[in-house]
Design brief:
Strand 4, helix 6 and strand 5 form a beta-alpha-beta unit. The relative contact order is 0.12. This protein has nine helices and eight strands. The chain has helices at 11-20, 43-55, 62-72, 112-119, 131-144, 179-192, 209-217, 233-243, 272-285, and strands spanning 102-106, 123-128, 149-152, 165-170, 193-205, 230-231, 247-253, 297-303. The chain is an alpha/beta fold and 307 residues long. It is globular. The chain has two domains: 11-79, no CATH class; 154-303, Rossmann fold (3-Layer(aba) Sandwich).
Length: 307
């Protein structure tokens, strides 16, 4: 349900459209059922995925094995494309019990947050511009016995009716959008939320320690393509309140983007102290909310204003 007449946020969206339209010229024939051309992975990673498929290596879906570091962060790179993962790294979603409420996950990729929300009792729909990732998500959901619906689409042009969802969630997605595109996605989020619905969206903070390091590495130039955009906390709050409603900014993690405490068992020894420190500071921030100004990754939780 991508719109071909719009400028896409990433190149694989265009390839997803071509593949869906039956353009055989774009198909990677080594493993066409895995939609390699739409996964957004390198040529070396594609070759490794083909090897995993042909030799039946690993305990999890081959596509997910190659997507893990891209969705979870560089600290997960040692798990990519091998048999070290014996289960799917599904995080814990910090939301009230779902009790059958509808939830939309924008930029779901292979569906890790969709599955986390399903475990929490939500009725989940995931949307992503990658056809290959959506197909991987569907395979994993079937494998685990989860009833989750996936749509190939664009967070800026959500193909859903007004007030379709009680909750909209997104992680490590809008932080890659231009600020104009991010604001459009927030407007769409508000449109599909029910009255008094909740949006919980992760973003990157401009003055986090690791965030500053990354910005310095690229010379504090304007980001291009799918690079991370780092927002000041005040600008984030204003953007969310303008589009959706009253907003709280809270800590996701420190010292990088993507750290999840439940993933401690997957971490290498050199990363465990970082994750431990990040979690300790996150817990402290519950007592001292202004600490969010120093976090690298934050959640913006907005309640839709009732008209």
């Amino acid at each position: 349900m991508l719109l071909p007449d719009k400028v896409q946020t990433m190149g694989i969206a265009g390839l997803s459209i071509e593949r869906a339209n039956g353009n055989l010229e774009v198909v990677d024939g080594r493993a066409p059922e895995f939609y390699l051309e739409t996964l957004g992975i390198s040529e070396e990673e594609k070759a490794r995925l083909v090897e995993l498929v042909r030799n039946r290596i690993g305990h999890i879906d081959p596509a997910v094995s190659l997507l893990v570091s891209g969705t979870s962060g560089n600290a997960y790179a040692h798990l990519t494309g091998n048999d070290k993962l014996t289960e799917y790294p599904i995080p814990r979603i910090d939301l009230p019990p779902g009790e059958g409420r509808t939830l939309l996950d924008i930029g779901c990729n292979w569906g890790r947050w969709c599955m986390a929300a399903t475990r929490a009792g939500y009725n989940v729909v995931g949307i992503d511009p990658s056809l290959g990732a959506a197909m991987a998500a569907r395979r994993v959901a079937r494998e685990l016995g989860y009833d989750i619906h996936y749509v190939v689409g664009d967070g800026r042009w959500l193909p859903f009716a007004r007030e379709s969802f009680k909750v909209v969630h997104s992680y490590s997605v809008l932080q890659h959008f231009s600020k104009e595109d991010a604001r459009r996605a927030l407007s769409e989020t508000s449109r599909v939320l029910t009255s008094d619905g909740l949006a919980r969206i992760q973003m990157a903070n401009r003055i986090g320690l690791r965030s500053l390091q990354h910005q310095a590495k690229r010379g504090f130039r304007e980001p291009i393509m799918f690079e991370v955009r780092y927002w000041p906390i005040g600008e984030l709050r204003k953007a969310f309140e303008t589009a959706i409603g009253p907003t709280k900014v809270s800590v996701d993690c420190f010292f990088g983007l993507g750290w999840q405490w439940v993933d401690m068992k997957y971490m290498q020894a050199r990363h465990k102290p970082i994750l431990l420190a990040s979690e300790a500071l996150r817990q402290l921030s519950r007592l001292l909310p202004p600490m969010a100004h120093a976090a690298d990754s934050v959640f913006c939780t907005a309640r839709k204003s009732i008209a």
